[in-house]
Amino acid sequence: MTAFAAVDVIRAKRDGGALSDEQIRWVVDAYTRGDVAEEQMAALAMAVFLRGMDARETATWTGAMIDSGSRLSLRVDRPTVDKHSTGGVGDKITLPLAPLVATCGAAVPQLSGRGLGHTGGTLDKLESIPGWRAALSVDEITAQLNSVGAVVCAATSGLAPADRKLYALRDVTGTVESVPLIASSIMSKKIAEGSAGLVLDVKAGSGAFMKSVSEASELARTLVEIGTAHGVTTTALLTDMNTPLGAAVGNAVEVAEAVEVLQGGGPADVVELTVALAREMLALAGLSVDPARVLASGEAYETWCRMITAQGGDCSAPLPRPAHVAVVEAAGSGYLSALDAYAVGVAAWRLGAGRARKEDPVQHAAGIRCLAKPGEQVTEGQPLLELHTDTPEAVPAALEALATAVEITDKAPEARELILHRVS
Ligand code: URA
C-alpha cells in the first residue's frame, strides 16, 4: 500500500479537497495499526466533519474500516437479512422483529450494541432476562441461525476494529454528528456481518441523533448508497422519534412490551413499525409471507422462546421488578399533545436504565412506563408516567429532565405519521 504523510492527508481535507482512495485506505489502516497518532486522526475527523466526504470517499472509507478486521462468513441455509436502527427512545423493535422474520423463513443475524447516553442498547434490555448470554462465538451464531433462524448477540471483536477506535475518538472530539462518519461507522459493522440484505430504520426527531427530517433523509440516502456500493441490497425507512416508541422505555419494561407484541398484543405503534420493517426484510429475502398475520398468530413468540433459551435465558422467568415506583400526574385536563422523546430518554437514563461510561452497570428494572400517548385525552391528576428505579434518590433528577416533557392543550394535536418515507 502506498504510504502518505498524515499531515498531507489532513491538509487536503482541511482545504476542502476530495481524498483519493489510496489516501483513505492508507490513513484508516495506519490509524488502526497505531502509525497515525490519535491527534492526527482527531484533526482529520474534524476536517471531515467540517468539509464532508462525497459518495466515493464515503464508500471507500467504509471499505477500509471493513478491511481493518474480518468479515463473518455465516454458512446458513436460509436467506440472511438484517436490520439496523440509528437509535431512539423506547426502540425495542429488534426484540419482536428478529423472531418474527425468522418465523417467516429468513435468517436474522442481529449483532447489537449496548446503550450509551439517552438511547438504550438491545443487549442491556435482553440481559434483564435471567441467564441470557450476549457473547457468542461465530460457530454458536451459525448453529443458532440454522436451528432457530434468529440471533441477537454482541458484535464479535474482529468486526471493523477501526470503527471501534475511531468512534471512541469521535466521542471525545465533537465529531460524532457527521453524516459520512456516522454512515461509514454503521455500515462498516453491518457489511462485515455478511448479511445479503439490510433494512435501516433511520430515526428523525428529538430522541434521535438526527433531529430534523432533512438531516435524517441525508443520512438514509448515504447509508443506502454505501450498502449498494458494497453489494448489499439496502433499503431504509425514515421514522418519527419525537415521542417514545410504545409505552415502555428502559430494560426489563421494554422486554415485557416486546413479549406482549410477540403474543399478538402490545402498543399499536410498536406493532406497526415491527410489521413494516418485517415486510421490507422479507421482500429483500425474497419471501412472500404476511408478517402481520404471523405476528397476530403468536407463532413468533415460540421462536422468541427458542432464541432466548438457545442463549441460556429462561423466557418464562419473572423479569426484575423495581424497588421503587414514582408517578407523574397530569397537571391539567385536555389533550396530551406532546411527550418529548429526548426528555423521557434522559429521565430513564437518570433512573438507572442507561450508563454514562462504557464500564458502568445498568439497572435492569429501571425505566419509565408512559401511561398515555400523544393524542389521548387526559384529566388533571391522572397518572401519565410511572418511573421505575432501584435508587429512589435518582427520582428528583429524572423529574427535572421531565419538567417540560409533557404538553397538555385544549385542542387535539394533529395526528403524526410514524413512518415518514422510504429510501431505496
Ligand atoms: N452508531 C454507530 O454505530 N456509529 C455512529 O457513528 C453513530 C451511531
From TrEMBL:
> What positions does the domain Pyrimidine nucleoside phosphorylase C-terminal occupy?
335-409
Q: Which GO terms describe its molecular function?
A: thymidine phosphorylase activity
E.C. code: 2.4.2.4
Instruction: Report whether Glycosyltransferase shows up as a keyword of the record.
Output: yes
The UniProt entry, under InterPro entries, shows: Glycosyl_Trfase_fam3, Glycosyl_Trfase_fam3_N_dom, Glycosyl_Trfase_fam3_N_dom_sf, Nuc_phospho_transferase, PYNP-like_C_sf, PYNP_C, Pyrmidine_PPas_bac/euk, Pyrmidine_PPase_CS
Entries under SMART domains matching the protein: PYNP_C (SM00941)
Keyword tags: Glycosyltransferase, Transferase
**Does Cytoplasm show up as a keyword for this record?**
no
What is known about its subunit structure?
A: Homodimer.
Family to which the UniProt record says this protein belongs: Belongs to the thymidine/pyrimidine-nucleoside phosphorylase family.
Protein name per UniProt = Thymidine phosphorylase
Gene source species: Amycolatopsis thermalba
Question: Source taxonomy lineage?
Answer: Bacteria, Bacillati, Actinomycetota, Actinomycetes, Pseudonocardiales
